[in-house]
Amino acid sequence: xxxxxxxxxxxxxxxxxxxxxxxxxxxxxxxxxxxxxxxxxxxxxxxxxxxxxxxxxxxxxxxxxxxxxxxxxxxxxxxxxxxxxxxxxxxxxxxxxxxxxxxxxxxxxxxxxxxxxxxxxxxxxxxxxxxxxxxxxxxxxxxxxxxxxxxxxxxxxxxxxxxxxxxxxxxxxxxxxxxxxxxxxxxxxxxxxxxxxxxxxxxxxxxxxxxxxxxxxxxxxxx
Length: 223
What we know:
The protein is mostly beta strands. The chain is 0% helix and 47% strand. A hairpin with a 2-residue loop joins β14 and β15 (198-201). It has strands at residues 13-14, 17-18, 37-38, 41-56, 61-69, 75-81, 87-93, 96-102, 107-112, 126-133, 136-141, 144-148, 162-166, 185-195, 198-201, 209-214, 218-219. The relative contact order is 0.30. The chain contains no helices and 17 strands. The chain starts with 12 loop residues before the first strand and ends with a strand. Residues 38-218 form the Laminin G domain.
């Protein structure tokens, strides 16, 4: 067995001596246990998850779906960039959801603006779908569709070959389609990227880098 157990452990004793787990000598990817737990991945607002070490190729088409729950009005959801300008990015800025795409000719943004500033940051689950089809981009939040015109109709492919960063990204990593540096605080679940007939559900416990991210449980809804 090479992976950690997704569970809570307590009252551990060795030879009758109670172990002090409140002040460990060292700690890695261990969080407190929650009284009420929901399925999903908890982001504590300090880090990120890095997926697909060998690089993810967005190219002409990609469909991203996920569910998120947060009480913060700012936070990076997802970014895939290249060393050049090609990139995609999903983020929450001032309570709005922004989906940015740059196919090489310039950044295009589609924005979902809820009626109330905090209506997406209410600690409840919200469904997001971001779609890039050649030069067309759209966002669907809780069933509400928004899209935008793209003047760069000849430019159709985002030629990326870098990891997928979720919930934030390292300070030394360039992200051409994200404006926020704020790490996401809250819970994410059911992250799926679809290209044509190929659908991939991402398991955060398989990320090659996890910082401030706890892949197997979310604390119960914040009030």
